[in-house]
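Re: weekly structure request thread

Next one in the queue (141 aa):
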Amino acid sequence: MFELKRSEILQEEVKINGEVITTNLNLTKNAKDVFRLARELQVLQVALQEEKNIIENLEKLGEKTIEIIKIFFGENANKVLDFYSDISEGQRHEKIVTERHTEEMLIEVIPFLFSLVPKIKEFHDKKQKELNKQIKGRKVN
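Done, posted below.
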């Protein structure tokens, strides 16, 4: 018998200003996006360490961090972005206005998000094995 299941959601808790915020990452839907963004963030971090295009790469790093925060936190992403922003509620979060807040966000949020990547990879690998097993188990008539 074949069993249908809903997508698994990765939930981790983070406390911001005393409020607990939960990640809501749909592992089936978002795993590949997380892997892509994590790799892009690593490449940008290396470029910054090598002092290549510092301002441009810092801006890109901030943009990619915002993108990955939105994927991880879903509807709670604005609470995280508001915490690191000088922008009032209702304005676009793509424009974090001060370099200080961007750097603070990168230093504090990236390690947390990267700590979740192994869990996502484990889930992704497990699902890939299940899929391969199902494909091999089917007979073509």
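The first strand starts at residue 9 and ends at 10. Residues 31 and 124 are 7 Å apart (CA to CA).
Next request, please.
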